[in-house]
Structure formats: structure tokens, C-alpha cells
Amino acid sequence: MTTAQTHSEMLALGFNFEHWQDVVEAAIATNQLTVTGEVRGGQLIQFADASGAQLNILAVEPFSTFIGFEGITQAFAHVSMVNDVLSYMNIITPTGDTIAEITANLAQGPLLAEVEEQQWQQVGITAMGLSVQSYDSAEAFESAEGMYPALFESDGAEVINSGNGGAAPTPGARFAARVLESSWRHNQLSGKKFMHVVLDGAFPFDLCLPESFGELPEKDTVLAGAALMTASVLTPMSGCGSGGGCSCGSGGCGGH
Q1: Distance between CA atoms of 84 and 37, rounded to whole angstroms?
Q2: Which of 156, 159, 201, 243 is the most exposed place for a label (fewest CB within 10 A)?
Q3: How far is 27 from 159, CA to CA, in rounded Å?
Q4: pLDDT score recorded for residue 253
Q5: What angle (nearest 5°) sits at the alpha carbon of residue 43, between those of residues 40 and 45?
Q6: pTM higher than 0.70, yes or no?
Q7: Which residue has the higher pLDDT, 253 or 206?
Q8: Which of 154, 84, 162 is nearest to 125 (CA)?
Q9: How far, in Å, CA of 187 to CA of 101, rounded?
Q10: Domain ranges of the chain
């Protein structure tokens, strides 16, 4: 089973709108927008759907709209910002050893764009499936691909780590991971459903897939493919405000 569609990053959350402006206007019409924080005299606004789907709107230059998801997996990471939206994360073990380095669109990114690296942040990471394939088991994947299904390769992290100034990092990634659980979610804004999957790979993360993917993946099957990565800092962000500073303690916002 595979999926590869235009606007897949939106369809992965059931936002079946033709244009970004359409989903923004629909979200505004609900009167359910909340202000996440103040940024350079403007605001970072979020629409949070009951399904867990999120729409983040940076209402100040350079103006941006990007999706996110309220996942259930958690990880620890050192977080720094590449720009207002894209973050660079060093996913770490409880003892501080590196598991993976990834780039992801961060829900609170604009609030952290002008501060130093935030260490030991508790984060939730969700992949928006763009082109994903299913394998019956870890053994089936290993037989077909010649490796154990614990793959995670971040396009953006590779660009940043290479020091290649001629390439722009993106939140794209390639992954392979085992399914722990899956369920349908119903996007209240669009009326469409999408899949929410919990994966165990190089590190635990959530995955969202469009309805067109087909049947819900069963436990212990393997999903592999390409995704757009999103993330959210799970610890309180108080203290990181309009001044661009962060006064949340020596460990960063949320500390250890």
C-alpha cells in the first residue's frame, strides 16, 4: 500500500483544501484561534482541531502558515532554530547521547527564532506521510531492504551538517519503523478522516497518513517512506515572549 499525492502534507491531517488560503479562512471562521505568543510586534496563532491536527499562523513578516499535530509520543532534544519555522533537533537519550539529528517545522518556532539553543526540551515529533509503503513485518522489510526497520534520515540535518551553503534545509525525511498502534482521527474542520499511527523506530514518533492510504496498518507491520517532519515543545514556553528572550532557567524553557 502506498500513497503519494499533491498537498500530501495537508491531506495527511485531513485538510482536503485546494489552497493554503482556503484552510486558513476556514480556521478563522471557527472563531477558535488561540494566540501562542507575541513575535516582533505580531502574533503566532494556532488553530487546534479536536482530531489533533493543528494549523500555525505567523501573522507578522515573513508571514507563514504551517501544520502540526498533537501527538502522543515524547522525546528529549536540544532544539535550535534554522529560521522562524524550521528547527534543528538533536534527539537524545536520557543520558544525553545522540540518537538522531533531524529538522522539523516547530509549532513554537517563531518564539525561539532569536534565542540560543534550548537544551533538554521535551518534544513531540510527528511525521506527515508523503509517500509511504507498508511491509507485513520487520522480517519482510529486512528481506526486501537489507536492513532492520529503524531508519531515520533527515534531509535538512544532512544539509546543515555538511555545511553546504548552496542548499536550503527542509523538514523532509526518510524513515522505516514498526507500528505500535493505529487509529482513525476525524478532522472537524474538513469533515475528513485520516490515520494516526504510533511508530517505534530509531526513536518513537507519530505518523499521520491520508485516508487514501487504505486500511489501518496493523501492529508490528512496518511503514517506510518519505515524510514532512513537524514538532512541538511539550514543556511550558512561559518566559519566551515578545522581546525574543527566554528567561526560563539555565536548562532553557522547561529545563530538565
Answers
A1: 13
A2: 243
A3: 34
A4: 33
A5: 150
A6: yes
A7: 206
A8: 154
A9: 31
A10: 2-12+69-233
